[in-house]
Amino acid sequence: MSNFVPTEIRGYFDQLLLVDGRLAWLLVGVDGTIRAANGDLAYFGVAGMARDICELVVGLGAEATQRLPHMQFGDGAVADLHLLPSTLGTYAILLAAQSSHDVMQQQQQASNERALTNNALRKSVQALQLAEKNLRQSQIELRRTNDLKGLMISKLSHEFGTPIAAVLGHLQVIRETPDDAAQSARSMRAIERGVGHLNQLVQSVLDQARIETGTLRLEPRETELTQIVEDLRALFQPLVDERGLSLTVKVDAPSHVLIDPLRLKQILINLLSNAVKYTERGAITMDVVWQTGELSATVADTGPGMSPEQLQGLFAAFKRFHEDPHSGTGLGLLITRELARALGGEIGVKSALGVGSQFTLRVPCNAVDKTERRDLRGMRILVVDDDPDLRDLMAAMLTSQGALVDCAASELEASKLASNEKYAAALVDLELGESSGLLLARVLRATRRAKKIFALSASNDLHTQREVEATGCDGFFAKPIDFANLQQALLKIERS
Amino acid sequence: MSETVTRKICVLGDFAVGKTSLCSRFVHNVFSERYLTTVGVKIDTKPVTLANNASVKMVVWDIAGAAELSGPARAYVRGSHGLLLVCDGTRRETLSAALKNYDDALAIVGSRIPAILLINKTDLKDHFDVDQDRIERERERLLAVYKTSAKSGLHVEEAFIALGEALQ
Known about the structure:
The complex is a heterodimer. Chain A is built from 14 helices and 20 strands. Chain A is α/β, with parallel strands linked by helices. The radius of gyration of chain A is 44 Å and the shape is elongated. About 1% of the residues of chain A have low confidence. Chain B is an alpha/beta fold. Chains A and B meet through helix 2, strand 3 and helix 3 of A and strand 2 and helix 2 of B. Strand 3 of chain A pairs parallel with strand 2 of chain B.
């Protein structure tokens, strides 16, 4: 190059590189110290970092000429670093490279941003694809559920229709043959059975809805376990006898435990019903055992049993109903399992084809000392309900327990009674025709004319329960009222 | 007072994982939302005092990001005493890039120098997509793993100091 570059050009570059400060150099000795330096070191930001440059040169171990592009020291200008070995050490030469750096940065920036955008786009597409897949799956599920619900409604219409027809028919028989006491008694029993079945159907549907919406309420209380078992035996013995089966019930448990008796009974009734329903011949056994805080009840049958495949879908909603239109609503076992879970337990199943099935309920449950039973003798109770039949029914039940009962059909009537009498308890229906049971409950609470106030309602939804809680009622009973439950609540007042 | 030692730290990882932001947070305690790609290398120094009062001047080499070390970046790594490997917690593939950079750097340096893995951008935790199993598998050969945020400063100073402690 030196052969054809004129001296003027050389001079110009000397001026450009050395005098205008666009070149700087250091001579780093073999011992790593600076032997000499020149040019505008400050321009490249290395004025205070000369020692670092030395360490860098030593670290890089430059044995041949090297060019390290686009280096920036601190806030200095970007430089290309040239390492030039010599007999005196290594020259570290800094040449300004800001413009080439800026051009390259612009290109690199655009390329990186493109890659980031593509990456984000790819992720968005993946997320969209996943959302679409989930949506399709949800639609399939929704269609399936709708189909099943449609089938269930059709099945329920039939289920409801049969007992309603029976009840209406027998009522007509009673009306037409009022003097035939034996026929009336038979019809009354048939009506009782029909209404009981209807109530069971309604409860099943409501329970399923409560489970789905998470509003299932548990009411654990002191429960006479032996009585529940005896009730079940009495309930199922006629059915078992009718089918030529045998029923063995064994109990090894304290007489009283703390549990929700309604739900426990519901679970066991369902398990026993299934056992009776599917067993053609042989035996049904129920084994109830309590041990260190756990109650287990095993219902075993000698029915047809189930294959592992059948066991897998056993607890699916509407499963059996879907497969066998002649069976029940298909909610029974699902509700049973959910109730067991609500009680803090689980249902286990063992089954073998041709041998039989065994369902075991396990729930945590404490034993309680048997306490002395008392009646409601002398307790003054105000019953407020605008339905005369229900009002009379409650009055009759309470009076039979020795309670002194006053009845009112409206808020006004009840207020009048309460102004003259102080009650141990007031049972207030929330729907009092044109007047408000909630308002009455508030008045009774404010005037302290009733020691305890219990709300009654046919609605058992969360909204109603919250309203009752906000009013300051001491309890809530959903209709149809469980009198044993009500009695126990009233007995607590007596004790306190 | 003991003499100050100088230690060269290279910060490696894929592009746009936040290497420059981490260095700026550590050296100048500043953060900018604007993404500006690094070309070549940017060298900064910061003196730190360690738990035992020892002084270390950390010379931080913020090297242009790439999925692997190539070209001039291979020369920049030579003479390193320690490594900070950075990945972006919201971009799964950047973990592999950080670990590939690590393997490349070890081959160039020729000895097993201490390395810390920084999973950056924890401020975007809702978008995190990290291969935790891979991290657990790699943990043994790393000095430490930190989840950092250059934006908030979370664990940034701790990570640099931890490397300084190992290099004193």
